[in-house]
Write a structure and sequence with these properties.
Rossmann fold; alpha+beta; nine-stranded mixed beta sheet; globular; five-stranded mixed beta sheet; YbaK protein; binds zinc ion
């Protein structure tokens, strides 16, 4: 490709709303352009990278036995209503009506659509297993689209869905997909972690996320360097050290004037923060109240609580709601409370602890379960943090941030039961099909790669996904010899099928270098002053090589590169 005939509108300035490197460089280097909030155009450079990523994904999905198809983007509301997600999805679902006033949605995901296809065409165990995938534009009306391609309202995904006759078979398929995902992210050159994840709104039995390590990432991960345990904070477990038994002391109400926070109470009563038990009053799905007890040094994990309650959302009760329950703000406690009480496992072997007294300016000390009040049970509601003991080997956990690029779920029968997607098994009985689903954020991967491959001058594409492999710069286009040599190398590379960009534009050498650094094509041949000595310069964009090469050695250099 000749740069003079190509479209690569580079910018000198950072886009005003861009904070993260991938957003800045993809726009500045002319890979993408915004059309509206969270909606981007892929310019020829961006499109080339996108197709390479898609093809790597496609290769490994095909090798794993998945079948590519393409489902409609426009999906009828009737399908979403069958699973209840027409309501659950809320404002994130892009909804529209056709001329007959029938409701439709632009698909953010396709469990309903594919399940409908399968239930209409699968009758018997002989028709299974099936494993489909598609690479398609998806829509989600994000409240805050940001970071360029990282969180958009229109984006490209690879979504896959598997259908098996038994959970055992479904787990095998899940493992095959997991393996394919590892191959994909390795081939893309990403530094990533596979982590245990929350099943969230999609629902199901278990799931894993593939998270690329980036400082600006929105996913919070805890992991263990010793045994390899890794999980999204929303789902992360941690070990709670067993406490030694203590003789039970007499419960006592103490005056704690205006002392509310855990730290204040601990200081005032001169007890460690681990002796304080917080009583958090939550409202689930805007109807039911529940009290949750958790040790003073542990943050409650609302995802775990939501899942335990099988709720769609939970929130802390506000002061007026607390008042209606007879609880003064800051002094909530479990004793005498008339709502269900749940406790985190951190409270299980705690003795003689401190709780609020449900009375302004008072706390109870030396409180014990079950002597002083009853609870429904001990569960895991804690948020893991750096330093907490690993749930597997008890070594201290580490924390990092990342960008989720893949997510796989063993769905079980959540969708097949809701939509009557059944098959007749060998024993003649009708059973629901066992499903899995497997997503990859294809357009987001462009950003993820740039987040890991850039410097202060621009992008440094890995060879596998680079828009071009070799960038030839002719610094002085008035120099006939330079033009001749440049075009000669260009033609030879083209004949070999190498993707090459030749910058023969009539602009300054400085601008050519600036653009080349911004674009990030991995290999570069510079035809400049040293041509007088019969030499050209070979550079790697990552800075690891900068060599003068004799023209007669060019062929062997290019051979080495390919
Ligand atoms: Zn561990």
């Amino acid at each position: 490709m000749l740069a003079s005939k190509f479209f690569m509108p580079t910018l000198k300035e950072n886009p005003a709303d861009a904070i993260v490197p991938s957003h800045i460089y993809l726009v500045r280097a002319g890979f993408i352009r915004p059309l509206a909030a969270g909606i981007y155009e892929y310019l020829p450079l961006g499109f080339r990278v996108l197709k390479k990523i898609e093809n790597i994904i496609r290769k490994h999905m095909d090798n794993a036995g998945a079948l590519e198809l393409l489902l409609p983007i426009l999906t009828p509301a009737s399908l979403w209503k069958e699973t209840g997600r027409w309501d659950v999805y809320g404002k994130e679902l892009f909804r529209l009506k056709d001329r007959k006033d029938t409701d439709f949605a632009l698909g953010p995901t396709h469990e309903e659509t594919i399940t409908d296809l399968v239930r209409k065409n699968v009758r018997s165990y002989k028709d299974l297993p099936l494993n489909f995938y598609q690479i398609q534009t998806k829509f989600r009306d994000e409240a805050r689209p940001r970071y360029g391609l990282i969180r958009g309202r229109e984006f490209i995904m690879k979504d896959g869905y598997s259908f098996d006759v038994s959970e055992e078979d479904a787990i095998k398929t899940y493992e095959v997909m997991k393996d394919a995902y590892h191959k994909i992210f390795k081939e893309l050159g990403l530094d990533y972690l596979m982590v245990e994840a929350d099943v969230g709104a999609i629902g199901g039995k278990f799931s894993h996320e593939f998270v690329v390590k980036v400082p600006s990432g929105e996913a919070h991960i805890v992991y263990c360097e010793k045994c390899g345990y890794a999980a999204n904070v929303e789902a992360a477990k941690f070990h709670r050290h067993k406490l030694p038994p203590e003789p039970l002391l007499e419960k006592e109400k103490v005056y704690t004037p205006s002392i509310k926070s855990v730290e204040e109470v601990a200081n005032f009563l001169k007890v460690p923060i681990t002796k304080i038990v917080k009583t958090l009053i939550y409202k689930a799905d805007e109807k039911d109240y529940v009290a949750v007890l958790i040790r003073g040094d542990i943050e409650l994990n609302e995802t775990k609580l939501t899942n335990h309650l099988k709720a769609i959302e939970v929130r802390l009760a506000n002061p007026e709601e607390l008042e209606s329950l007879g609880i003064p703000e800051g002094f909530a406690g479990p004793i005498g409370l008339n709502i269900p009480i749940l406790a985190d496992k951190s409270v299980e072997d705690l003795h003689n602890f401190v709780v609020g007294a449900n009375e302004k300016d008072y706390h109870y000390i030396n409180v014990n379960i079950p002597r002083d009040f009853k609870i429904e049970g001990f569960y895991d509601f804690g948020t893991a943090k750096e330093g907490d003991p690993c749930p597997v080997c008890h070594s201290p956990l580490k924390e990092t941030t990342g960008l989720e690029v893949g997510h796989i779920f063993l769905l079980g029968t959540k969708y097949s039961k809701a939509m009557n997607a059944n098959f007749v098994d060998k024993d003649g009985k009708e059973k629901p099909i066992i499903m899995g689903c497997y997503g990859i954020g294809v357009s987001r991967l462009i950003s993820a790669i740039v987040e890991q491959y850039h410097d202060d001058k621009g992008i440094i594409w890995p060879d596998n996904v680079a828009p071009f492999k070799i960038h030839i710069l002719i610094l002085n286009t008035k120099d006939e010899k330079a033009m001749e040599v440049g075009f000669d190398i260009y033609r030879k590379l083209k004949e070999k099928g190498v993707e090459v960009l030749l910058d023969e534009r009539d602009i300054s050498a400085g601008m050519k270098f600036k653009d080349a650094d911004l674009l990030g094509i991995p290999h570069r041949i510079v035809i400049g002053k040293s041509l007088q000595e019969g030499k050209v310069e070979y550079q790697k964009r990552d800075g690891s090589i900068k060599d003068l090469v004799n023209l007669e050695d060019m062929d062997s250099l290019l051979k080495g590169l390919l």
